[in-house]
Design brief:
Layout lengths: L1 E4 L1 H4 L9 H13 L3 E5 L1 H13 L3 H9 L2 E3 L3 H9 L7 H13 L3 E3 L3 H9 L3 E3 L3
Parallel strand pairs: 1-2, 1-4, 2-3, 4-5
Length: 130
Amino acid sequence: MRHYVDTSAAAKLLVEEAESDALAAFLDKALDDGDTIGSSLLLETELRRLGIRLAIPQERVTLVLERMALLVPDGDVFRNAGLLPDATLRSLDALHVAAALRWGADGVVTYDERQATAARSVGLSVASPA
């Protein structure tokens, strides 16, 4: 399986939150099962900015990113993100959903309700380990 990890999930690997341990266990099991964990290169920008804001060492950010395949979004990803039908979906969330589709993800790991709704609407499963 291919699990696309968005920023709301990946951030929990850097900042301890209620779901952090469950998420880490979910991702570890997926990797142990031979699944692929991935995201868009957009995640690198978002996590590095989070690191700067919260004074998290960039080496920790790098360790999180190195566990994932990172898709370089092309023009089709941006166009398809813009065409997703959900009027309440924010631009960066739309980019994550479109990137997940382009990458061929089976599901999205997210804690963002709007993004989860958009992912389900295009046939992706959603996981929010808690």
